[in-house]
Each structure stands twice: as C-alpha cells, then as structure tokens.
Amino acid sequence: MRSVHVPLRGSLAKFTEGFADKLEVPAGTKDVQVFDDELPGFGIRKFRKGGKDGTPIDEPCRSGPSSFFVKFNVGKRNGARRWAGS
Length: 86
Prior knowledge:
The protein is mostly beta strands and about 90 residues long.
C-alpha cells in the first residue's frame, strides 16, 4: 500500500462530508491514503478508476472508489479494519 501526503492548503486533514469525493489520486500512482489529524489511525484510501473508461495513470484522478479504515496496535501487533466506501 502506498501512502501519499496530500497538502490541503496548510490546513489539517479534517474529514468532513464530501472529503473523499474531493480527494485526488496523484498522477503516476494507483491510490492515495490520507489520515485524519483529529482521529488517530482513521483514514481514507482512494483508488484510481480503472478499466477502459478509467483515467490514464499519468493524469490526476478524482473519480475512483474509496474506503475508510482504522489502523491500530495491540501490544506488539498491528492491525487494520476496513469499511466499504463509495
């Protein structure tokens, strides 16, 4: 999984309604992962829309599916849980 920092004009990445729809997958990557600064471990992963009608890999993309997840530690073990998104 590739994690990319998405600058939000100097503000914190606070997830609000519609945040995932506005999130853009940068050119040259297949997905982008962003964490909420107020809820530790909570994030959104947005994918590039694939297939024949998808955006070319060398162009930024906003029209792909997204999913929400939580990363956590229990002792020395790491874990993650995903929820279906749009």
